Amino acid sequence: MSHFRTLAKRCTFLARSSRYMSNIPEDSVYGGPKPQNHNQRVTLTHLRQKHRMGEPITMVTAYDYPSAVHLDSAGIDICLVGDSASMVVHGHDTTLPITLDEMLVHCRAVARGAKRPLLVGDLPFGTYESSTHQAVDTAVRVLKEGGMDAIKLEGGAPSRITAAKAIVEAGIAVIGHVGLTPQAISVLGGFRPQGKNIASAVKVVETAMALQEAGCFSVVLECVPAPVAAAATSALKIPTIGIGAGPFCSGQVLVYHDLLGMMQHPHHAKVTPKFCKQYGQVGDIINKALLAYKEEVTNGSFPGPAHSPYKIGSADTDGFVNELQKLGFDKAASAAAEAAEKIETVKSPGAL
Amino acid sequence: MSLFKTLAKRCSSLARSSRYMSNIPEDTVYGGPKPQNHDQRVTLTHLRQKHRKGEPITMVTAYDYPSAAHLDSAGIDICLVGDSASMVVHGHDTTLPITLDEMLVHCRAVARGAKRPLLVGDLPFGTYESSTHQAVDTAVRVLKEGGMDAIKLEGGAPSRITAAKAIVEAGIAVIGHVGLTPQAISVLGGFRPQGKNIASAVKVVETAMALQEAGCFSVVLECVPAPVAAAATSALKIPTIGIGAGPFCSGQVLVYHDLLGMMQHPHHAKVTPKFCKQYGQVGDVINKALLAYKEEVTNGSFPGPAHSPYKIGSADTGGFVNELQKLGFDKAASAAAEAAEKIETAKSPGAL
């Protein structure tokens, strides 16, 4: 009887705070009690509510612990561990070279840092295209080993739609991605905007709808004209998240390094996308900071007393100097004695 | 005869521009001519010259392409791919969890970004302690697969000195590391400064000298009192590079994220080392930038016309709207038409 009541209690409790398609259990029963705030992690339910109320969804990419913490602190809705890491973190010219194992390392680091945003991991090039089986296996690894809440995959070919459906059926939430799909630059002939003629524009809308049909909870629209994005957003029940797709989407996404102006080298300024607004000039700040550090080390002002905190007592200092002399290190002994003196002088009133 | 002349020419050319213990060939013979500036990469010779002239050596850590590019632009002498990545990139509490494969990924990304600084890769915990054989194998991988110019290993135990010697004999330049050695926190009982009593202070100097004897070209001194660092620096012929070791070393090193103030979360402010000066407040800038992005997406002002560059011609727009209607997507058709109008209005004089 009491067992039944406990079960009943737990069921209503779970029903009250159920988090739709999230991979974190309600209660870490086996690991012991953890202070889990059930409303902490952004879930599909939260996103659905935002979409229904017409509130734009925010998404930014992150690739490591610090960037994930920054996104969490800023209250960004979705944190995407993008295969753009291949370019902005690893320095390749395309998103193709990054491997699944490398993506999983990024995912884990991000998962450690971001406790609030929904975590989405990209399926990298070559890990989901050859069969539905391969796609499901990869998606499983991204959640199981990468600690993500959902995955994103690119494209709208029939095989891709089938793969998306199978992944959803495996219990993994999927974001679709149409328009410019960077993994396909080989057939696209470069990073070229899509949907600029009738046939292409209609295709964008149709593939977005097919992905919705397959069970995706959202679709990213990349580099398409604004009216095309508006049409897709209107035709879909699920939210669209745009990048270089104009203001009529249900949400927006940008690459971390681009929005922060992380790269200030002239070469990189040329390759910054024109649809991306720089909300900071972090690259400039980094450059100035490094130059200041170099200057201060070179002229000897760093480290000053404030940044040389570790002391050796005067009795020990003397003993140390004696030991060095006994060992025959006379120069070293005087260097130590001089250094101890200099520090004493600086500490006395009048100095610093 | 002409073969002999060619050989003679090549020998003198090599002798003139020999770069001591650098792993980049003078000339990319097999790959065809590349515009290689022989003076471009910082080498052991350059460092030796700086040390002889009393010019402080600058070293900063980097873990990916952008940070490497920043160090290169700022003209930092040495770029260290530190196992501190375990903490600042991956979010662990210590440097222990990072694997060699993960370090190699960091090394490769850095090698792509930094063409000028000397590249040094840390040997991570667990990859060089059990045998000299293991140490040499790991060091080889860091150069062969990681693209580094030299390696750094921690500690001064006899087995460690032996390992350093074997690595140098394998033709790989080595930086030693004494004082606080973070991989040893298990026996040290935490991140505790060393050399604070006579015995410990003498040990710092002696192990540094033993590492020099083994063939190291430099030694890092971490978290020791300034007089102890002064003694070691004086006793050694090779340069010392200090961190939390006062101003009497031959050079200084700091962790990228610490010197830039990358983390602004209160938790991280508490764990920032006290010997590190923050030359920037990058974390603050990032936080403000992300909040501004979130604000503009939420209130609909981003993306404005300046950041919605992709257009569909008006003829195609008309055709697109018709197609959508034919397919039964009436709402989508009107959304597209409306969007096209709004953009036209925004473009006309009076508006942005």
TrEMBL record, chain A:
Top-level class of the enzyme under EC nomenclature: transferase
SUPFAM superfamilies attached to this UniProt entry: Phosphoenolpyruvate/pyruvate domain (SSF51621)
GO MF terms, alphabetically ordered: 3-methyl-2-oxobutanoate hydroxymethyltransferase activity; magnesium ion binding
One Pfam match: Pantoate_transf
EC number: 2.1.2.11
InterPro entries named among the record's database cross-references: Pantoate_hydroxy_MeTrfase, Pyrv/PenolPyrv_kinase-like_dom, Pyrv_kinase-like_dom_sf
Pathway: Cofactor biosynthesis; (R)-pantothenate biosynthesis; (R)-pantoate from 3-methyl-2-oxobutanoate: step 1/2
Segments forming a coiled coil: none
Record's protein name: 3-methyl-2-oxobutanoate hydroxymethyltransferase
From TrEMBL, chain B:
Biological or metabolic pathway of the protein: Cofactor biosynthesis; (R)-pantothenate biosynthesis; (R)-pantoate from 3-methyl-2-oxobutanoate: step 1/2
GO CC entries: mitochondrion
GO molecular function: 3-methyl-2-oxobutanoate hydroxymethyltransferase activity; magnesium ion binding
GO biological process, one term: pantothenate biosynthetic process
Keyword match Methyltransferase: no
Keywords on record: Pantothenate biosynthesis, Transferase
Pfam families: Pantoate_transf
EC number: 2.1.2.11
Catalytic activity: (6R)-5,10-methylene-5,6,7,8-tetrahydrofolate + 3-methyl-2-oxobutanoate + H2O = 2-dehydropantoate + (6S)-5,6,7,8-tetrahydrofolate
Protein function: Catalyzes the reversible reaction in which hydroxymethyl group from 5,10-methylenetetrahydrofolate is transferred onto alpha-ketoisovalerate to form ketopantoate.
Family the UniProt entry places it in: Belongs to the PanB family.
Name this protein carries in UniProt: 3-methyl-2-oxobutanoate hydroxymethyltransferase
Lineage, broadest ranks: Eukaryota, Viridiplantae, Streptophyta, Embryophyta, Tracheophyta
